[in-house]
Amino acid sequence: KSVAHKICSGQVILDLSSAVKELVENSLDAGASNIEISLKEHGEDFFKVIDNGCGISPDNFQVLAKKYHTSKITYFSDLHCLTTFGFRGEALSSLCSLGSLTVETRTKNEEVGTHLTFDHSGSVIAERKTARQVGTTVSVEKLFSTLPVRSKEFSRNVRREYGKLTTLLNAYAIMAKGVRFLCTNITSKNSKSVVLKTQGNNSVKENVIAVLGLNTFQCLEPLSINVSACCTVEGFLSKPGYGSGRNMGDRQFFYINGRPVDMPKVGKLLNEVYKGSNSKQYPIAIMNFIMPATSYDVNVTPDKRKVFMTDEGSLILSLRAEIEKVYSPHQC
Ligand code: ADP
Ligand code: MG
């Protein structure tokens, strides 16, 4: 049973960035306006996510990290109109099986907070009262320590994992209106660096400036296109001649209805059209696809990064035509 548990967990939590992603999504689901992410040794030793969301009520403590425990889906039909990031109740249970999990939380109905320690099977092994504001802190020590091979691989690739995590946090911070993000990293030499900092602005534009910097923002143009009768794209795209010298995907952010997702085909399309305008660079993009919940499915992979869109082929074609319009008038 425990092996099956570990194998299945591997699918939700693939790496450092998917682990932190799950915690950040929980904080957003809890209505937090302040989310702080602290890493030790780029997340290899320890990471925690602190929020000022609604907190977790004591009746949920025992089942919190049990597989499939979720407070978010009440009816099965909810799966078709997801308004929360989470719905499977797998993240905390997976994290438990992969590292050492502690949770500190308080709702507005409690006078004091509670600190909970879990074992690898998701059971509470210690509970004590603690002073804290309303909200939740979830900490994970030594991710993948229960899977030696994965753990070695993690150590070997920490820098790359860390880069991936930064890009992912940037993606969430850009789209989350009114949510202040702070991410810091502490290394063994006790040097602390700020990875990400936003002010909780109410506009995506201000978030883009906070995340990518004013200089980069000034290379961008607002984007608003109708791709089809039921799909529009809102965001920013770098002006012709401006872009990123690298093609690391770290400056292309794609969303569906505000949910960060991978869109390799759209990334490829952008790069191709942009190249066609005689540039050696890669475009910077922030693109939010707004479409009815019935026209796509994020429930394809456990990490919900891959999406299945109905009519993807024709969507990509007409998007390409629109992007060509953006770039072509400037060609000489
Ligand atoms: P899911 O998000 O799919 O429901 P998780 O395993 O991520 O599953 O979380 C399990 C449950 O724990 C959530 O449904 C929620 O009730 C609670 N929870 C987890 N993190 C937080 C948080 N930061 N604030 C409030 N509740 C939380
Ligand atoms: Mg979740």
Describe this structure as you would to a colleague.
With 332 residues, the protein is an alpha+beta fold. It has 9 helices and 15 strands. Strands 5-4-3-6-2-1-7-8 form an 8-stranded mixed beta sheet, with helices on one face. The protein has a 5-stranded mixed beta sheet with strand order 9-10-13-11-12. The chain is globular. The model is unreliable at 76-80 (pLDDT under 50). Bound molecules: adenosine-5'-diphosphate and magnesium ion (MG). This is DNA mismatch repair protein PMS1. Residues 208-328 form the DNA mismatch repair protein S5 domain.
What's the layout of helices and strands?
Blueprint: H1 2-12, H2 16-29, E1 34-40, E2 46-51, H3 91-98, E3 100-106, E4 113-118, E5 124-130, E6 135-141, H4 148-156, H5 158-175, E7 180-186, E8 192-197, H6 204-212, H7 214-217, E9 220-228, E10 231-238, E11 252-256, E12 259-260, H8 264-276, E13 285-290, E14 296-297, E15 308-309, H9 312-327
Parallel strand pairs: 1-7, 11-13
Antiparallel strand pairs: 1-2, 2-6, 3-4, 3-6, 4-5, 7-8, 9-10, 10-13, 11-12, 14-15
The structure holds adenosine-5'-diphosphate and magnesium ion.
Adenosine-5'-diphosphate binds next to helix 2 and helix 3.
